[in-house]
Amino acid sequence: MNKEQLLSKLRVIITPYVQNEEGLQNLNENTDFIKDLEINSANLVDVVLDVEDEFDIEIDNEAMEKMLTVKASIQVIEQKLKAK
User: Fold this and answer.
1) For residues 26 and 52, what is the distance between their CA atoms, to the nearest angstrom?
2) Which of 77, 75, 71, 78 is nearest to 32 (CA)?
3) Which among 4, 14, 19, 50 counts the fewest CB atoms within 10 Å?
4) How far apart are CA 58 and CA 48, in angstroms?
């Protein structure tokens, strides 16, 4: 799965939690979930759970803490997929 496919799946996962629609339209690797998309920290946990379900991976607390941007999230997902 390439980065564009991951980004596309990630966009679908985060869309229900986004408070800033403009930020979602400009989604890229540098997008910050909290600052740019205004996703609150409780919903970030939901995003991580949805990512686990979508990609059939397990994300530990250390990896979860890194998942604050699109780029960091894609890196975590790629690492977990390779480790499967």
Assistant:
1) 24
2) 71
3) 4
4) 9
For 27-74, the pLDDT digits (tens) are 999 999 999 999 999 999 999 999 999 999 999 999 999 999 999 999
pTM of the model: 0.93
Structure tokens belonging to residue 48:
């991580």
Cα separation of 8 and 27, whole Å?
Answer: 10
Which tokens go with 12?
């679908």
> Is the distance from CB of 70 to CB of 31 less than 8 angstroms?
yes
CB 19 within 8 A of CB 39: yes
Task: Give the DSSP H/E element, type plus range, for residue 1.
Answer: none
Q: Is 83 exposed, middle or buried (0-12, 13-18, 19+ CB in 10 A)?
A: exposed
Query: Scanning the structure block, which residue is given the tokens 């699109």?
Result: 70
